[in-house]
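Dear support,

Our group has been running a series of protein-ligand predictions, and this particular one with zinc ion is the one our PI (initials K.S.) wants archived with full inputs and outputs. We had some confusion internally about which version of the output was final, so please treat the block below as the authoritative record. The input we submitted was:
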Amino acid sequence: MMNPFVYDIPTKVYFGPGKLEHLGTELAALGKRVLLCYGGGSIKRSGLYDRVVAQIQGAGLELWELPGIDPNPRVTSVRQGAQLCKEHGIDVVLAVGGGSVLDCAKFAAAGACYDGDPWDFSTGAATPQRALPLVTVLTLAATGSEMDNGGVITNLETKEKLGRGYPCMQPKVSFLDPTETFTVSRYQTACGSADILSHLFEIYFVTGDESMYMLDCFKEGMIKTVMKYAPIALEQPDNYEARANLMWTSSWAINGFAGAMQRSGWSCHPMEHELSAFYDITHGLGLAILTPRWMRYILDEDTQGRFYQYGVNVFGLDPALPPREVAERSIDLTEQFLFQTLGLQSTLTDLGIDSENFEVMARKACGGKILPGFKHLTPQDVEHIFEMCL
Ligand code: NZQ
Ligand code: ZN
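Confirmed final output from the archive:
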C-alpha cells in the first residue's frame, strides 16, 4: 500500500523580476525591527543589497545586520544571529543569499526564542517550539532552503555538519528572482545543479510503496529539466529561461511535495555531510562525486527495476534492452552528465582527500548503526563507497 502523507507547504513565493518591490510590505506585516543576514559580499557586488535596504527603509523599518555567513554555515554565525535578535528585540529575520545564508538565518531565528545554545537544535538535544518569522531572498538555485523547513549547520570544533528540519523554521515568504542568479559562477551553477539532482535522486530511488506514478512523472520531469537547463546556464549565465527553470526546480525538488510518501532515509546526503564536515568542501561537488559510485554500489536484482525506469523515462533508453544493461547505461549517463557536461571534478583524490578519515566518517554517516535508504548501508558499505570515490 502506498504511504499516506500530509501536504503542508506554507511559504508564500514571489517569483520573477520586479517582485522584490513587495519586500517592504511583507516585512512590515511581520514586524518593525529587521535582522538582515547575508554572506561574503556577493549581494553587495550585484547591487541586491542596496535594493533590499531601500525596501526596508522605504517601509520605515529598523535594520540590523548579520554579514559574513560562510558557505557550510558555522554555528558561530548562528549564535551571533540569535544573540543580535535577543539584544535588539528583532521581530523578523531576513535572509538574502544562497542556502548557507538561509540555513543560518533559520537556526538564528529559532535560537532567538531559546535560552540555551542553538546548536542544541542541530544535535536534536532540543526541539524549537518557536522561531522569529523568516523572509528569504534567494540568490542561488540549489538547496531548496527557500521553501523547506530544514537547515544544515557546521560545527568546526566538533567536525560535525548536521541537518535538521523544524516546522517553525519554514520561511513565511520567499522572493525568487532568477535574474539574481545571473552572477552565480560557473562552478557554483554546476554544484547547485548537482545538488538539485541529488535531492531528486534521493526521493526518486525509493521502493514502490514510497511513490506513485504521478509523483514519478513529476520527479522525472524535474530531473530532465536540470539536465536540459544546467548546461545552458553554464554557457549563458544570463539566460532567463534556464535560470528560471533551475530556480523553480530547486524549490520543488525538496519542498516536501514530490517526496511526500517517502519513509526511508536519504543516502548520498548523509555521506556528503561527512565530507563537508571533515574537509569543508562544496556540498554539490561532494554529492556529484558520490552519486554515481553510490548508484553502482547499490545496483542489484532488487534495485535495478528503478534504474531501468530512470534510464527509459529520463534518458530515453530503449525499453527492449535487457533491464540490467539499461540500468548500467543510466548510471554511465548520470556520471557523464556530472563530470563532463557540468565539468565537475570526479574524484576525492582531485580534492586532495585520502582515505585517512573514511572509517570514522562512515560510522558517523550511519549514526553508529545503519544508514537506512533505498538500499540500507552499513558503515562498511559507506566506507567502500568513499573508497570508490578516490
Ligand atoms: O557568500 P556570498 O558572497 O554570498 O557568495 C556565495 C558563496 O560563496 C556565492 N553566491 C551565492 N549567490 C550568488 C553567489 N555568487 C554570485 N552571485 C550570486 N547570486 O555562492 C557561494 C556558495 O553559497 P552557498 O549559500 O554556500 O551555496 P548553496 O546555496 O549551495 O548552499 C549550500 C549549503 O546548503 C546546505 C548545504 O549542506 C550547504 O551547507 N543544504 C541545505 C539544505 C536545506 N536547507 O534544505 C539542503 C541541501 O541538501 C544542503 O545540504
Ligand atoms: Zn543537498
